[in-house]
Amino acid sequence: MNYRKLISTILIVMIALIANAQIGQQSARNERIESLKVAFITEKLNFSPEESATFWPLYNEMEKKIKEVKQNPVRKARSIQSDAEAKAFILERIDDEEKALGIKKEYYLRLTDSISAQKVMKLNQVENQFKRELLKEVRNRQGQRKNR
Questions:
Q1: Which of 29, 90, 119, 127 is a plausible cystine mate for 115, CB 3.0–4.6 Å?
Q2: Number of helical H runs and strand E runs in the chain
Q3: Can you say whether the dihedral through the CA atoms of 18, 19, 23, 26 is positive or negative?
């Protein structure tokens, strides 16, 4: 009986360690993507050191607020089983999008105090360009893995 408890405990500890390692890898990957995004936006919008110093704290604050509004909807969507639940979910997602847009509006206006309005105007375009480049890189890496 003690042997089974020991094996069970070892298995639980191993599963916890593996899960923790995967979370750590994901966190490191996210940090790397964020640093690439900072470099990309800084380069594309040609920020001076002064602009960077005032832009990034505001931008990061905006991103954090938007992320809070758009809590992971995929998990929630998977549990929907009726049309009424689906309709409520759709309305909730639209409300979240409106809140996120309101946050962007507020912060884009605030950002014009740290960088030019022309750079703020280009920000969304540059963010989308970064996402496309990142997606292209991910697809290339997946293609390379398949060819091995």
A1: 119
A2: 5, 0
A3: positive
Residue 44, both tokens: 């594309």
Reported as a single tens digit per residue, the pLDDT across 73-89 is 666 777 788 898 889 88
| DSSP for residue 147 | T
Distance CA 24, CA 67 (A): 20
pLDDT of residue 64: 94
Task: Please give the Cα distance from 134 to 141 (Å, whole number).
Answer: 11
Residue 130, number of CB atoms within 10 A of its CB: 18
Q: Could you give the CA distance from residue 123 to residue 28 in angstroms, rounded to a whole number?
A: 25
Which uninterrupted H or E stretch holds 121?
A: helix 117-146
